[in-house]
Recover the amino acids of this structure.
């Protein structure tokens, strides 16, 4: 599935004028960072506007039951024609069942594919995207590669998927696999100001680290600076999300192409509204590792 050209969209609207003015609901659960949410929202909004449709941004769900309640209320009170959803882990048990039973079109934009075994329409990034960063660290000579997670993201299915990629690449290269290093990641200033010698001591065990999100990378970067650990001289560092944070800190990070994901999600949504009985489809948008100075080995 390719992104439609503007001329194709104009022809589509001429043939289907009933699409104009319809409302698309946006439901995002548990995005790792506000910058990721903003990028997706802005890209989806721009694409919906191309179709002369209206984007309805709902509240952010706090759990699976709340996700279902928000979707029900939006449908009943705002005449939503379809939903674009970043789903909860139990989406298939609650919101997914409701939307399917009510024949309401929806598209999921999760980080990784195969979460729901192909039963729903999904626009995904590759399940092995993290492998790009781990392989790069190894190619730069890292022999002890750590994996950093946050206290609030430990049980996320996305983090678990990334850890499996980390593990597989290291095993393929006959290198040791380490248990995740957990650092505080609570919202607010305390996460950035909590200097902890124990964490610094743990970081010093590695010559390369992959942070499971750019936000965690920023917290780790601050601890390295406070603890006298130089990047990249003492520690090679990579992350995932490629937010402005990684650009500002010059840290290598995985670009997941959220604008393209957003455009494809909206185009698929239009297709579902016009033809609701089509079988579920899954599309994978390629990821790219943006290499910056943080992961380039400095000659000694």
């Amino acid at each position: 599935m390719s992104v439609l050209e503007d001329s194709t969209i104009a022809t589509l609207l001429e043939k289907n004028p009933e699409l104009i003015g319809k409302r698309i609901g946006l439901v995002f659960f548990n995005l790792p960072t506000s910058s990721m949410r903003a990028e997706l929202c802005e890209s989806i909004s721009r694409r919906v506007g191309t179709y002369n449709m209206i984007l309805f941004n709902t509240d952010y769900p706090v759990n699976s039951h709340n996700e279902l309640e928000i979707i029900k209320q939006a449908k009943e009170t705002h005449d939503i024609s379809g939903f674009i959803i970043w789903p909860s882990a139990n989406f298939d048990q609650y919101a997914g069942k409701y939307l399917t039973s009510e024949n309401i079109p929806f598209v999921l934009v999760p980080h990784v594919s195969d979460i729901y075994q192909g039963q729903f329409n999904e626009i995904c990034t590759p399940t092995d995207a993290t492998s790009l960063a781990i392989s790069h660290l190894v190619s730069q000579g890292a022999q002890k590669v750590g994996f950093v997670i946050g206290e609030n993201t430990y049980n996320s299915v996305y983090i678990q998927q990334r850890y499996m990629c980390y593990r597989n690449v290291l095993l393929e290269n006959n290198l040791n696999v380490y248990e995740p290093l957990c650092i505080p990641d609570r919202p607010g200033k305390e996460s950035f100001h909590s200097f902890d010698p124990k964490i610094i001591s743990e970081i010093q065990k590695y010559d390369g680290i992959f942070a499971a999100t750019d936000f965690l990378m920023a917290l780790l970067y601050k601890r390295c600076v406070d603890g006298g650990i130089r990047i990249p001289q003492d520690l090679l560092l990579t992350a995932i999300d490629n937010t402005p944070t990684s650009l500002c800190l010059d840290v290598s990070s995985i670009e997941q192409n959220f604008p393209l994901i957003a455009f494809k999600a909206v185009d698929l949504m239009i297709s579902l509204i016009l033809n609701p009985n089509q079988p579920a489809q899954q599309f994978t948008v390629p990821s790219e590792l943006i290499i910056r100075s943080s992961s380039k080995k400095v000659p000694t």
The first strand starts at residue 23 and ends at 28. Residues 128 and 164 are 9 Å apart (CA to CA). The two ends are 48 Å apart (CA to CA). Residues 34-50 form the longest helix (17 residues).
